[in-house]
Design a protein that fits this description.
There is one protein chain. This protein is of the alpha+beta class. Helices cover about 35% and strands about 20% of the residues. It has nine helices and eight strands. It has helices spanning about 10, 20-30, 70-75, 100-105, 125-130, 160-175, 205, 210-215, 220-230, and strands at about 60-65, 80-90, 110-120, 140-145, 145, 155, 185-190, 195. Strands 7-6-1-3-2-8 form a six-stranded mixed sheet, covered by helices on one side. It has a two-stranded antiparallel sheet with strand order 4-5. α6 links the parallel β6 and β7. It starts with 8 loop residues before the first helix and ends with a helix.
Length: about 230
């Protein structure tokens, strides 16, 4: 599938919902230009840590791509043991990319979420188990209404053990017989992660109405129910 060159692909598909919908969308776009005053400490520190998993009792790090990072962040914030989540960009070639560049498919980056977790309360295997039901693992270069390789699903490993566990988890799911189609979610090495702009961090908390409107009209939960048989 060709990359989406629309600088705001997340909202472009909603133009048919009528005048009221358009007004809401315009408000959301306007909000994108107004960073929230609240601080997000995780977003303030770009991560170059692509190294080993933390020992038990320390802080672990994991990185996942599930399409819109607003939604992936919201999903992981509900997982016990997760300490913080940061929306950002990974796997591209441009230094310090902007949302406009990434969403336009111009940098090679993927929208992703970096998860920091308490290793005494959870582990990478549990995060993998939590991740799968939040994505469509069957559709390449797309998640729900967002299309292009910048929105594809992926698991990024920070060390050899995470790679082993991710590959084993994917193989187990493929062998389960749940799906007739192949699983296209990629397993990739973690590279430089760039936190997204501040207004993207905790978007579902800062803008609950706009977030709920986007998530519903993007068809995310409807597709998840179709793929996994789970209603949200």
């Amino acid at each position: 599938m060709l990359p989406n060159t629309d600088p705001q692909p997340r909202f472009r598909r909603h133009g048919t919902f009528g005048i009221m919908a358009l007004a809401l969308l315009m408000a959301a776009l306007a909000a994108c230009g107004q960073p929230d005053a609240a601080n997000n400490s995780a977003a303030a520190n770009p991560s170059a840590n692509n190294g080993m998993s933390s020992p038990r009792g320390a802080t672990g790090i994991a990185t996942f791509a599930g399409g819109c990072f607003w939604c992936t962040e919201a999903d992981f914030d509900k997982v016990p043991g997760v300490m913080s989540t940061t929306s950002g960009y990974i796997s591209g070639t441009t230094v310090n990319p902007t949302y406009k560049q990434v969403s336009g498919g111009k940098t090679g980056h993927i929208e992703a979420v970096q998860v920091r977790f308490d290793s005494a309360k959870t582990n990478f295997a549990k995060l993998l188990a939590a991740f799968w039901p939040t994505i469509d693992p069957l559709t390449p270069n797309r998640q729900f209404c967002d299309s292009g390789p910048q929105y594809r699903s992926a698991i990024f490993y920070h060390d050899a053990e995470q790679q082993r566990q991710a590959e084993a988890s994917k193989a187990e799911l493929a062998a389960s017989g749940r799906f007739a189609q192949p699983i296209v979610t990629e397993i990739l090495p973690a590279t430089q992660f760039y936190p997204a702009e501040e207004y993207h961090q905790d978007y579902y908390i800062k803008n609950p109405i706009r977030y709920a409107y986007y998530r519903s009209n993007c068809g995310r939960d409807a597709r998840l129910a179709e793929v996994w048989g789970i209603s949200r």
